[in-house]
Amino acid sequence: MTSQKCVALIAHDQKKDDIAAFAKANEAVLARWKIVATGTTGGRVQDACPSLDVIRMKSGPLGGDQQIGALIATGEVHMLIFFTDPLTAMPHDVDVKALMRLATVYDIPMALNRATAEQLIDFHHP
């Protein structure tokens, strides 16, 4: 395991523009982190911030949430930023809940909206 801190970035479909804008606004800080993301979110962040090295997992519904959950369980992810959409039903809701449960069990900082993400990213400079 590397000593560089790792942040996971995930966003539901209706929040992908928001997470791309968040990444762009915090690009200099995120550049100091190892970044993992679910597939589509990672692509959107990479498009908004070409200077960032984003490791893309599978799309969330196709196992990406579970891949990131495994990284949390092995201690490889140190912070989770997951922009959720509380107004849209998710077919893979059980995966989302499992991911949030793992972040809680392993006691890593977790933001579910931009306001909290801004606080975490300011506080947890690697």
From TrEMBL:
Catalytic site: 65 (proton donor/acceptor)
Keywords: Lyase
Domain MGS-like: 1-126
A Pfam family this chain is assigned to: MGS
Enzyme Commission no: 4.2.3.3
PROSITE patterns per the UniProt record, alphabetical: METHYLGLYOXAL_SYNTH, MGS
UniProt KW Lyase keyword: yes
UniProt GO MF annotations: methylglyoxal synthase activity
Catalyzed chemical reaction(s): dihydroxyacetone phosphate = methylglyoxal + phosphate
Residues the record lists as binding substrate: 12, 16, 38-41, 59-60, 92
Stated family: Belongs to the methylglyoxal synthase family.
NCBIfam families according to UniProt: MGSA, PRK05234.1
Function summary: Catalyzes the formation of methylglyoxal from dihydroxyacetone phosphate.
Protein name: Methylglyoxal synthase
Source species: Rhizobium herbae
Taxonomic classification: Bacteria, Pseudomonadati, Pseudomonadota, Alphaproteobacteria, Hyphomicrobiales
Gene name of the record: mgsA
